[in-house]
Write a structure and sequence with these properties.
Shape of chain A: elongated
Order of helices and strands of chain A: HHEHHEEHH
GO molecular function (chains A, B): DNA binding; DNA-binding transcription factor activity
Strand order of the largest sheet of chain A: 1-3-2
Organism (chains A, B): Streptomyces calvus
Helix content of chain A: 55-70%
Protein name (chains A, B): DNA-binding transcriptional regulator GbsR (MarR family)
Strand content of chain A: 5-15%
Pfam family, one (chains A, B): MarR_2
Number of domains of chain A: 2
Largest interface: A-B, 56 and 56 residues
Oligomer: homodimer
Number of helices of chain A: 6
Keywords (chains A, B): DNA-binding, Transcription, Transcription regulation
Radius of gyration of chain A: 21 Å
Structural class of chain A: mainly alpha
Number of strands of chain A: 3
Chain lengths: 165, 165
DNA sequence: CCTTAACTTCACAAATTTCTGAAAGAAGCG
DNA sequence: CGCTTCTTTCAGAAATTTGTGAAGTTAAGG
């Protein structure tokens, strides 16, 4: 038998990590299945798993995998790719996963900003409440700008430490 | 009748804003009642409302107010104060609300980091999965540091624009 | 084209969450 | 101290969410 270059994986240790990390994500507001699927991908060797592998590893139905993956793709936390010459779909976490996720969170903040602007207008900019909303809006606008710069710094930091673009 | 210095509030406009903004917060993962209570406080003149006022404005039972406020206080999005010489409790959003909320989110990230460190150890730092987890961990550690600096910049920015410490 | 493997959609059963009314618990005020 | 007012806790009804099996859809491979 050919020698494997990487240590063997302990499925139980993997599962323990997956469930533990997923639980933290759930606590932060992510739904259960998306959280588990995402954690499983994160803990996989290549960062890629097929639907069948996820179904097997997490003991959930293909339908559940489908739903979880649809959600994760929508918020750009995984990408889906078709294995060439096969009906198998593969789901991948990429290196930019968190960048993407944060960028997506930004669009959430945009909607908050819209709601706040509407509030300022309808309550009146010169009312006490209007002023509070204005300040809140200013905070989010500030964050928007800062996060862009921050992510650029992260890319530089990562390139230096992990040596890729 | 003495003249009021502030424009009168249109309860319907307030309610529209409250429900709309709360809906955005819910979509971002907050529970419904905490979201509505928070939005109501944000849209109030003084940033302070009593339990009874919240109950009345949102058409929910005192029990629901109690539960929502307990949660919001726990994550530092409102503070509770006792009106001196009364059994009435007052709930307040302060200017530091978002700072506090973000700081709190940081403690969530700390738990993610713990889970990741555990994963790196149990999967092995030299496995492909271990390396991916290590990079993810590095990202969060980076964010931790950056957010602290960012919030300092916000305080300066706010002081300049809104003129308070 | 037809077959078949793989994913998705849909309706529903189960589990969970949410909110309420009622009872219990604090705390001011007489 | 006990009365009264407000808040919290608790058990349960109602609504929502979640995950499944089964049928439906898509596309590869003969």
């Amino acid at each position: 038998m050919a020698e494997r270059s990487e240590p063997a994986r302990d499925p139980e240790a993997v599962s323990r990590f997956v469930e533990h990390f997923a639980a933290q994500l759930v606590e932060a507001g992510l739904q259960r299945m998306p959280a588990r699927v995402f954690a499983a991908l994160l803990a996989s060797d290549r960062g890629v798993l097929t639907s069948a592998e996820l179904s097997e590893a997490l003991k959930i139905s293909p339908a559940a995998v489908s739903g979880a993956v649809r959600y994760l793709a929508q918020v750009h936390m995984v990408s889906r790719e078709r294995e060439p010459g096969s009906r198998r779909e593969r789901y991948r976490v990429h290196g930019d996963q968190w960048y993407e996720a944060l960028t997506n969170r930004e669009t959430v903040i945009k909607r908050w900003e819209d709601a706040l602007r509407e509030g300022v207008t309808s309550l009146g900019p010169d009312t006490p409440a209007g002023r509070r909303l204005t300040e809140t809006l200013a905070f989010f606008e500030f964050i928007d700008r800062e996060v862009v710069a921050m992510m650029e710094r992260w890319r530089a930091h990562r390139a230096e430490r992990f040596g890729r673009a």
